[in-house]
């Protein structure tokens, strides 16, 4: 007998064309979660922008009140007294030109790269490596900063970066499926608040078009906008 995949199981049990409240969607995802590993809770937000217009593109960071449920590996490019500050606050790899060589090894995986402005001449040479991974430091995401201590603390706590893709959709994670339901809801609310705050002034009409919630191996469940906006 052909094995029924998790996605097919969900499709057979729920109406994927129906809009669910946030609470209902989380309950469904929890009900059909995988048993052999802890999945992430992922979100896709369709926003009313023209991605071809630079001024309408959305990029930002926000601190999730309950984090992502995983250890965040952070690289910090800096010098002087900031090296010790970064290490004391939990950065996993700290330095200058010497750590650039380490990052060129594609087997090394990190979640965030932070840089003080005085080291960007080093970091810029890593554009072909960091760029495709979405790890290139940027002042808009708080990853180019003079305040190394604050940046490391925020990202360790669960500061996530987000940006829209070429279709005007923002994809990110808001925690793990084993989180308490209210933790997922509060992380969701924090992210939505931040995204709405970054609505481009040139955007007309309803900003948030659609929202889908899913797990790593699950299919997307559409959220009823009138239940959360």
Automatic annotation (TrEMBL):
Pfam families for the chain: Ribosomal_L1
Keywords: Membrane, Repressor, Ribonucleoprotein, Ribosomal protein, RNA-binding, rRNA-binding, Translation regulation, Transmembrane, Transmembrane helix, tRNA-binding
TM ranges: 207-228
CDD domains: Ribosomal_L1
InterPro entries in alphabetical order: Ribosom_uL1_bac-type, Ribosomal_uL1, Ribosomal_uL1-like, Ribosomal_uL1/biogenesis, Ribosomal_uL1_3-a/b-sand, Ribosomal_uL1_CS
Cellular component, GO, one term: cytosolic large ribosomal subunit
The keyword Disulfide bond belongs to this UniProt entry's keyword annotation: no
Annotated GO biological process: regulation of translation; translation
MF (Gene Ontology): rRNA binding; structural constituent of ribosome; tRNA binding
HAMAP family: Ribosomal_uL1_B (MF_01318_B)
UniProt function note: Protein L1 is also a translational repressor protein, it controls the translation of the L11 operon by binding to its mRNA.
Subunit comment: Part of the 50S ribosomal subunit.
Family: Belongs to the universal ribosomal protein uL1 family.
Name of the protein in its database record: Large ribosomal subunit protein uL1
């Amino acid at each position: 007998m052909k094995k029924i995949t998790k996605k097919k199981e969900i499709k057979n049990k729920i109406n994927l064309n129906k809009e669910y409240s946030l609470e209902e969607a989380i309950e469904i995802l929890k009900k059909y979660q995988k048993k052999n590993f802890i999945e992430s809770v992922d979100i896709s937000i369709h926003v009313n922008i023209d991605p071809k217009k630079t001024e309408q593109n959305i990029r930002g960071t926000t601190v999730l009140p309950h984090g992502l449920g995983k250890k965040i590996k952070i690289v910090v490019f800096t010098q002087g007294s900031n090296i010790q500050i970064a290490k004391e606050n939990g950065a996993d790899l700290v330095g200058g030109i010497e750590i650039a060589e380490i990052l060129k090894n594609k087997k090394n995986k990190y979640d965030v790269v932070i840089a003080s402005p005085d080291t960007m001449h080093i970091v810029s040479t890593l554009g072909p490596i960091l760029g495709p991974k979405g790890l290139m430091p940027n002042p808009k995401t708080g990853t180019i900063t003079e305040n190394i201590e604050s940046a490391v603390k925020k990202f360790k706590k669960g500061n996530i970066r987000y940006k829209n893709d070429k279709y005007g959709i923002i994809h990110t994670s808001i925690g793990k499926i084993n989180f308490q339901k209210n933790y997922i809801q509060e992380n969701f609310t924090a992210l939505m608040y931040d995204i709405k705050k970054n609505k481009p002034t040139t955007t007309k009409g309803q900003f948030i078009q659609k929202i889908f919630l899913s797990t790593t191996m699950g299919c997307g469940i559409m959220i009823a906008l009138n239940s959360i906006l």
